[in-house]
Amino acid sequence: MSKPVKSQWDFGELFPVEATRSVLSVSELTTQIKRLLEKSVGQVWVSGEVTNLRAQSSGHMYFTLKDAGAQLSCVLFSRENVPHRELLADGQKVLLQGDVTVYEARGQYQLIVRAVELQGVGALQLRFEKLKAKLAAEGLFAPERKRPLPHFPQRIGLVTSPTGAAIRDVLHVIKRRDPSLEIIFTPCRVQGDGAAREIAAAIRLLNEFGIQNSEFRIDLVLVTRGGGSLEDLWAFNEEVVARAIFDSVIPVVSAVGHEIDFTISDFVADVRAATPSAAAEIITEGVFASCEFVSESAERMHELMARHFEGKVYDLTQLDERFARAHPRRRLNESLQRLDDLQTGLWRCVKQGVRERKMAWQNVSERVRRVRPALLLKQQREMLRSVRRRLDELAKLNFQNGKTRFSVLESRLRSLGPEQVLARGYSITMDAATGKVLRDAGDVKSNQKLKTRLRKGEVLSEVE
């Protein structure tokens, strides 16, 4: 903060003195606002929708948190160890914890994020996945601990709401398929605060009742409710319910919601049913199938007797046919027929052998006739004469061709020889001493003796 400057001149007598002003720079004002915000607001939780998310190469994430009336700039630094950082995405509704501060370079207030949580259904889904992973690691979902349901249950425990649609569906199916099945109903809430504790208490109560009263043994426990949203079904995703089902001595069937709904109780229970009606059908399947079996027994017995009688008639027919096939006369007739077949085959083989030998003899005779020495020698002589004639003809033809080529070459050589040039009136002048042909007059010297060759004879001369 700047201080008022006192002038070295005193003009108080001439001009009235004005009140001193405190003037701040932009940086100083921004710093004071930052300190005020951090002190008065500090760390807060704020909810909203993520928009304009930018992830920098440095790892820092910048985005805007908005609602219907305002927006807030946020930053999540890479050095901050914030779980669920990957939940940040455009359009995602989240709960953020952070420190409200001012980014002095822009004079803009912002939220430095310290924690991220999903809001609404997303948060519930995250809690669901965390609990599911935890219980799976502890072995509560292990297939080897699943117990089979009794095939013919006589008494079951029912845990559900007395006013819901689930109890009506279950009772309707049981009345139709197994009216003799006894039901021990333990009412409880299946939605809202405290519902999970009531469901767990009902499961434990049925276990205690079945153990303490052996004459009222409970064969299985059905935990059920109708469909609804994730929030409506959340009581069955609580850990207290999962522990109660896991600790149950009696096998447990879980039928919560519709076919597409899955809860933690479904994974822990020994059997999961898609709907309450489907659970009732699974429980009564043994008795219902037995009733159908009994009603079809008479027809089935008649069918089995008829099939058995048909089998015995078939066996008797087979024995009769085997006895007829095993009679000595039949075997003798078959042997005689076999002997005739062998005799016929023997004659056929003899005739075939004779034909093959005769054909082989004819082939050998024909080959001998074709390779007679006189005929072969005659053929070789004819071939020799033919080859000799061809050699003579080729020799004469080659000689004539050579003679013709020689004449042509001789004629060409004569036409190119010096005699033909001399015959046309030309002469050749040479050095008489060396015999070197002179082609340039500059090569001639005085008193040099020359020899000139004409067509006929030579002329000796001396250069002057």
Overall mean pLDDT stands at 84
In DSSP terms, counting alpha (H) and pi (I) runs of 4 or more, how many helices?
Answer: 12
Helix content: 40-55%
Distance between the termini: 131 Å
Annotation, overall tally of beta strands: 13
Shape: flat
Write down the Rg: 62 Å
Residue stretches low in confidence (pLDDT < 50, at least 5 long) are 1-9
Structural class: alpha/beta
Beta-strand share of residues: 15-25%
Query: Strand order, biggest sheet?
Result: 1-2-3-5-4
Describe the main β-sheet briefly: 5 strands, mixed, barrel
- SSE run: HEEEEEHEHEHEHEHEHHHHHHEEE
Overview of this protein structure:
The protein is α/β, with parallel strands linked by helices and 464 residues long. It is 47% helix and 19% strand. It contains 12 helices and 13 strands. The strands form 3 sheets. The protein has a 5-stranded mixed β-barrel with strand order 1-2-3-5-4. Strands 7-6-8-9-10 form a 5-stranded parallel sheet. The N terminus is likely disordered.
Brief description of this entry?
The chain has 464 residues and is α/β, with parallel strands linked by helices. It is 47% helix and 19% strand. It has helices at 26-40, 121-138, 165-177, 195-212, 239-247, 264-268, 276-283, 285-295, 297-325, 328-370, 373-416, 418-423; strands spanning 43-55, 61-66, 71-76, 93-103, 108-118, 155-160, 182-187, 220-225, 252-256, 271-272, 428-431, 449-453, 458-462.
